[in-house]
Amino acid sequence: xxxxxxxxxxxxxxxxxxxxxxxxxxxxxxxxxxxxxxxxxxxxxxxxxxxxxxxxxxxxxxxxxxxxxxxxxxxxxxxxxxxxxxxxxxxxxxxxxxxxxxxxxxxxxxxxxxxxxxxxxxxxxxxxxxxxxxxxxxxxxxxxxxxxxxxxxxxxxxxxxxxxxxxxxxxxxxxxxxxxxxxxxxxxxxxxxxxxxxxxxxxxxxxxxxxxxxxxxxxxxxxxxxxxxxxxxxxxxxxxxxxxxxxxxxxxxxxxxxxxxxxxxxxxxxxxxxxxxxxxxxxxxxxxxxxxxxxxxxxxxxxxxxxxxxxxxxxxxxxxxxxxxxxxxxxxxxxxxxxxxxxxxxxxxxxxxxxxxxxxxxxxxxxxxxxxxxxxxxxxxxxxxxxxxxxxxxxxxxxxxxxxxxxxxxxxxxxxxxxxxxxxxxxxxxxxxxxxxxxxxxxxxxxxxxxxxxxxxxxxxxxxxxxxxxxxxxxxxxxxxxxxxxxxxxxxxxxxxxxxxxxxxxxxxxxxxxxxxxxxxxxxxxxxxxxxxxxxxxxxxxxxxxxxxxxxxxxxx
Length: 557
What we know:
- It is built from 14 helices and 13 strands.
- By secondary structure, the protein is of the alpha+beta class.
- The chain folds into six domains: 85 residues; 104 residues; 89 residues; 43 residues; 44 residues; 90 residues, 2-Layer Sandwich (Alpha-Beta Plaits), CATH 3.30.70.100.
- It has a five-stranded antiparallel β-sheet. A five-stranded antiparallel β-sheet has the order 9-8-7-6-10.
- It starts with a helix and ends in a 20-residue tail after the last helix.
């Protein structure tokens, strides 16, 4: 139909001959359809535009040959190139209207020398071409709409300019002015006709696209459906192959760890190198498997997409490469943290069990005392060899502890996160593990000391370091042994402590076995009671603080 309309239009536009039909059997003249009318108008406008451009090109070429000035000639050469480009675009518009064939394959492609950038572009080009092909309709529609809006605006401006020139010609009387205005009006009239012709062609092409176009939702659905139909199988096979290779290598790594002596508690350097190599091979092997599947399938679009993803990952990892090198040093046991050494993390000591991508730290005293953490968190930390019998926590479950906040109780639960102690009377108190350590717990389950101070009056100063001291030692020994089993008493002593401001002070020290830790507070009070009983027994006066008031001079009251 388009070829027929084109033939009719050429005869109409040519104007060189008139069709004569036999009048013997005259057929009725068909009424052209709206589509045929638009096509004819568009072809007419294009042919007119091409002829006018040919005339302008010929005139410009002639002017270039006859112009003596180099500057003017250079400007005319630029104008000639612009005219030739416009004529070429018009011819392409003509071909686009009368034919749906893609003639881009007839273009000459110059062979380029090999470069790395060119090779990457060759891999990525199929992906770009696929995207361009999928979005060709929407892009063409947008470009034509932009050109149409620009041509419409230009036509309106030229129309206003022509109206202004026509009004000026009506009001002007001077011959020279009218001649100049006529010349300018002729030039702008030609531009106006060119712009109208272009507007007619663009309007026809937009109507043609709209008539056979689809909505944005339908077009997007079609693109996705085409992608999964054509590329989905290849992509799925590549993903399955990559996962299979990665899982196989990981199973090999786990098998070597569990069933060979190579990866024992004291791993040799060769085992560490093999471990790093297997982890690296997991990623590289998975990527290579996906690439091989796409190469076998001949899917260059998905291969280009994988290359883009790989380049993006490499570019993203460029700034973090020093961190990866530090992690590799740790995995090779050459960094600041080493296997089977002691490490302090969050204020709690740990032993480094192994160094892999996910490192395991253990604390044998804490419940659930195992942390699995990325090796990246160990970068910047320090470890050291542990000494013999070095504790990993100040207490165990069942121990009695005294904290800086005066809390005293039995540890009934301690884990990586929390420590819970049961106070005297049955109440419980929770501490985060790090906060518990900050309270500097005193563990009384291995033994503890109770101290108290006893003061007597200065009237006993002469015997305070002799007879009185011996009497106090004997009395405290007798009373404590009556209260506590002698086997649980590690030591008991009463010593002269200091000559205080208003008393002579004695220090009583009682060391007990850890089995008596629950009675720490009662025994502390018992020592105070025994001190008072001793003073009563030996008729010793306990002084109190005395304050002497000196009145000011001259005060008689």
